[in-house]
Design brief:
The chain has helices at about 20-30, 45-65, 75-80, 85-90, 110-120, 165-185, 265-270, 295-305, 340-360, 375-385, 415-424, and strands spanning about 30-35, 40, 65-70, 75, 95-100, 100-105, 130-140, 155-165, 190-195, 205-210, 220, 230, 250-265, 275, 285, 285-295, 305-310, 310, 325, 365-370, 390-395, 400-405, 410-415. With about 425 residues, it is α+β, with helices and mostly antiparallel strands. Strands 3, 7, 8, 9, 10, 11, 12, 13 and 16 form a nine-stranded mixed sheet that branches. β17 (about 305-310) and β18 (about 310) form a beta hairpin. The radius of gyration is 25 Å and the shape is elongated. Bound molecules: adenosine-5'-triphosphate and magnesium ion (MG).
C-alpha cells in the first residue's frame, strides 16, 4: 500500500474531545475516524488490524469445531418478547417503530440462535451445535468516553453452543475458556479469567477475560498466583485478604474486559421451547451457552497495552502491515529537487524496487512514498503508526537497506536477501 494514496493520514495533535490513549493514538495514526461519541469508522489501517484480530479469533473458534455463520441485525419485537428481554433490556437496546411494526437493532443474539435451533435441531443426533459470527452490535451506552473500547456500535464475535447434556455443555465451556486464553495470547495480551455477574443475560456466574490496564473501566480482585479473580462488583472478598493457597495478599486492579462467556443452562431453551428428542425418546431442553469477544475493543486494548511516548507498538500478529518502508529523496531533510533531478528518480526507483521485491515475496508493506514530507516527519509517522519493522532506503544507504524494529532503537544496514530472510 502506498501511503500517499491512503485516505486518512496522521494528525499532529490529539483531538481535544478524546481522553483515552487508544482514541488519541488511533485517531492521530489514521486508524479510525470519529462520526459521533461511540461511533467510529475503521479506516484502512484500522480495518487491517481488525481483520488480523478477526482471523486469529476465527482460527481458534474453528479449532473447537465451531462453524461460522452470519445473522441479521434487525430483529422483530416478538422474538425478544419470548424471553421478556424486550422490556428487561430496554435500556441497552435501540428499539424503534416503522410502518406500525416494532424492531430492535441487535445488542446480542441468544434469541435469534434459539430460533434457529428449534427449527433445525430435532434429535440428540444433531447435537452439539456450535455456531458463531462476527457482526455489529448496537448498545445504547450511557458512558462512551473510552474511545473504541466502548462504542454504541461495535464489532463482536459471538459464539453459541447447544448440548444434549450438562456434562457436554460444561466440557465445551472449559474448552472455550482455554481457546480464549490462547486467542488473546496470540495478540500479546495476558488475560485474567474472572468470575462475574451475568447482567441481563443470566442469573448464573459468568467468566470475563480481563486485561490489566490503568485505563480500564472494570476493577478486579485477584490473586497474583492466578488461582482467584472476581469482578470487584461481585467479589465475595476484598483486596489484602491472604490467598488460601499461600500466594500472598489479593490485589485490586483496573482492567479491560475483552471477552465474556455465559453458561446459560436451559433457561433460554425453556422460555423459547428449544427442545430435542433424547436417546430414550423424551423431550429435553438444550443446554445452552454464549461466548463473546469484543473485536473492536481488542484493537483499543492492544493500543492501551502496547504503546510508548512516540506512538503504538503493534505486536507482529495484529500489525496492519509487516513492514513500513520509507524512501528518502535527499541527503538532508527538505533538500530541493532542482540540483538533484537525476538522483530523485534514481532513489525513488530504488524505493519502488524494494517495495516490489518485498511484495512479491508476500511481505505486506506500507510504503511511505511521499515526496513532500521531511525525513523527520516520516520517521515520526512510522513511530506513531507502530508497524513492527521500519525499512529505509536513501542516498546514504545506497544499495543497502536500513532495518529497525519499532520496539528497539538499534539500526542495521542489510541487503535485500537478508531483509527477506528476517521477515520469513
Ligand atoms: P461492559 O461490561 O464492558 O459494558 P458487557 O459485559 O456489557 O461489557 P458483553 O455482553 O459481555 O459486554 O459483550 C461481550 C464482549 O463485547 C465484552 O467482553 C466486550 O469485550 C465487548 N463489548 C461489550 N460492550 C462493548 C462496547 N460498548 N463497545 C465495544 N465492545 C464492547
Ligand atoms: Mg461482559
Amino acid at each position: 500500500m502506498r501511503y500517499s494514496k491512503l485516505l486518512g493520514k496522521t494528525l499532529k495533535d490529539s483531538p481535544k474531545d478524546e481522553v483515552s490513549i487508544n482514541a488519541k493514538l488511533l485517531l492521530r495514526g489514521g486508524f479510525i475516524d470519529k462520526l459521533m461519541a461511540g461511533s467510529y469508522t475503521l479506516l484502512h489501517l484500522g480495518r487491517k488490524v481488525e481483520q488480523k484480530i478477526e482471523q486469529i479469533v476465527r482460527e481458534e473458534m474453528n479449532d473447537t469445531g465451531a462453524e461460522e455463520i452470519l445473522m441479521p441485525l434487525l430483529h422483530p419485537k416478538e422474538i425478544w418478547n419470548e424471553t421478556g428481554r424486550w422490556d428487561k433490556a430496554k435500556e441497552v437496546m435501540y428499539q424503534f417503530e416503522k410502518n406500525e411494526k416494532e424492531y430492535a437493532l441487535s445488542f446480542t443474539h441468544e434469541e435469534i440462535v434459539m430460533n434457529l435451533l428449534r427449527k433445525h435441531v430435532s434429535s440428540y443426533k444433531d447435537l452439539p451445535v456450535k455456531v458463531y459470527h462476527f457482526s455489529t452490535k448496537f448498545r445504547s451506552e450511557a458512558r462512551a468516553k473510552s474511545g473504541i473500547l466502548r462504542g454504541r456500535e461495535f464489532l463482536m464475535k459471538d459464539l453459541y453452543s447447544a448440548h444434549e447434556s450438562e456434562e457436554d455443555f460444561m466440557r465445551y465451556y472449559k474448552e472455550i475458556t482455554k481457546a480464549y486464553i490462547k486467542t488473546f495470547k496470540r495478540m500479546n495480551l495476558d488475560v485474567i479469567v474472572t468470575e462475574a455477574d451475568g447482567g441481563v443475560f443470566t442469573k448464573s456466574k459468568t467468566h470475563e477475560f480481563q486485561v490489566l490496564a490503568q485505563s480500564g473501566e472494570d476493577e478486579i480482585i485477584y490473586c497474583p498466583g492466578g488461582d482467584f479473580s472476581a469482578n470487584a462488583e461481585v467479589s465475595p472478598v476484598k483486596e489484602g485478604k491472604q490467598c488460601d493457597l499461600g500466594h500472598g495478599p489479593l490485589k485490586r486492579a483496573k482492567t479491560i474486559e475483552v471477552g465474556n462467556i455465559f453458561p446459560l443452562g436451559t433457561y433460554y431453551s425453556e422460555k423459547m421451547d428449544g427442545m430435542f428428542t433424547d436417546q430414550k425418546g423424551g423431550r429435553k431442553p438444550f443446554w445452552f451457552a454464549s461466548y463473546g469477544i469484543g473485536i473492536t475493543r481488542l484493537i483499543g486494548t492492544i493500543v492501551e497495552v502496547h504503546n510508548d511516548d512516540k506512538g503504538i507498538v503493534w505486536p507482529e500478529s495484529v500489525a496492519p502491515f509487516d513492514v513500513h518502508l520509507i524512501h528518502l529523496r535527499g541527503v538532508t531533510q527538505n533538500q530541493p529537487f532542482d540540483n538533484a533531478q537525476g538522483k530523485k528518480s534514481k532513489i525513488k526507483s530504488r524505493g519502488d524496487e524494494v517495495y516490489d521485491k518485498l511484495q512479491k515475496a508476500g511481505v505486506e508493506v506500507l510504503f511511505d512514498d511521499r515526496d513532500d514530507v521531511s525525513a523527520g516527519e516520516k520517521f515520526a509517522d512510522a513511530d506513531l503508526i507502530g508497524i513492527p519493522v521500519r525499512l529505509v532506503v536513501s542516498q546514504k544507504t545506497g544499495e543497502k537497506i536500513e532495518w529497525k524494529k519499532r520496539s528497539e532503537s538499534k539500526t542495521e544496514l542489510l541487503n535485500i536477501d537478508e531483509v527477506l530472510k528476517r521477515l520469513k
